[in-house]
Amino acid sequence: MAEAVHPAIAFGAVEKWYGTRDEPVHALARTDLAVADGEFLVLLGPSGCGKTTMLRMIGGLIEPSSGEIAIEGKSLWRNGQRQAQALSELGMVFQDANLFPWLSIEKNIALPLELKGVPAPERRARAAALMRLVGIEGFGKRWPRELSGGMRQRAAIARALSYEPRILLMDEPFGALDAMTREAMNMELQRIWLETRKTIVLVTHSIAEAVFLADRVVLLSPRPGRVDRIERIAFARPRMPDLQSSAEFQAIVRGLRHRLNEIGEEGSGHAR
Ligand SMILES: Nc1ncnc2c1ncn2[C@@H]1O[C@H](COP(=O)(O)OP(=O)(O)OP(=O)(O)O)[C@@H](O)[C@H]1O
């Protein structure tokens, strides 16, 4: 397969300040980062280190204060205007599935297609294929409230994939789920990724989740948010849950936890 000409996502000297009523908040210091086409990148770090800010900037929901973000080589912003062309490459999944309660699961999944004017028979066929892909086949006529949290998250992933974005952005997608469902969802997400080969950027607070899923873990530190280190995770795929009890896996988790503790101490102790 030919190498993609552009990275899927490129940060060039991107910086973000938020204006507040008191002091401006320096949410992200000048950051350069390239995410390869088809890569699974995980953003990990303590509260307030800028993970969501980075994800929302990639998603075009907020504009960087300076620097440039390019999606597949196309600038996301030009003269303060978001470029729709670059945005169509992106799908988003949040912690809360955010399904419309008055629409069936099938209609929720097909909604982005309806908004795009895709005819009903094609929408139904696509929704059926996506429900198979995420493992909720047969639940299309149900209401969101009739599904478990894990199943609702599967539906949210199906909806984000419905218009075939090349990049999937996920902000703590499994943060609200119990530990067992979360582990099952990690396996499912890995399977979906192996089948679709999307570029994925996922935010998490869980070190084990990060190491289990990622090609690279980007560890961020706060005040201001910045990339502290990038850990390449080389385990072969598909990765099985037992991998997590291996010495190699635990060594990486330990290293990241150790660094996270140091970051915490630097933040609370000596002012810089
Ligand atoms: N809209 C906003 N206005 C002002 N400050 C903000 C805003 N959004 C985020 N911040 C600040 O920017 C910094 C980075 O926030 P961000 O939400 O990106 O961090 P995070 O790593 O995602 O945190 P968490 O893990 O708690 O979700 C924090 O200091 C936060 O208080």
UniProtKB/TrEMBL annotation:
GO terms of molecular function: ATP binding; ATP hydrolysis activity
SMART domains in alphabetical order: AAA
PANTHER family, alphabetized: ALIPHATIC SULFONATES IMPORT ATP-BINDING PROTEIN SSUB, TAURINE IMPORT ATP-BINDING PROTEIN-RELATED
Family matches, as CDD domains: ABC_NrtD_SsuB_transporters
Cited PROSITE patterns: ABC_TRANSPORTER_1, ABC_TRANSPORTER_2
Family membership: Belongs to the ABC transporter superfamily.
Alphabetical list of InterPro entries matching this protein: AAA+_ATPase, ABC_transporter-like_ATP-bd, ABC_transporter-like_CS, ABC_transporter_ATP-bind, P-loop_NTPase
Keywords of this entry: ATP-binding, Nucleotide-binding, Transport
Protein name: ABC transporter
Highest taxon of source: Bacteria
Organism: Falsiroseomonas bella
Residue span, ABC transporter domain: 9-247
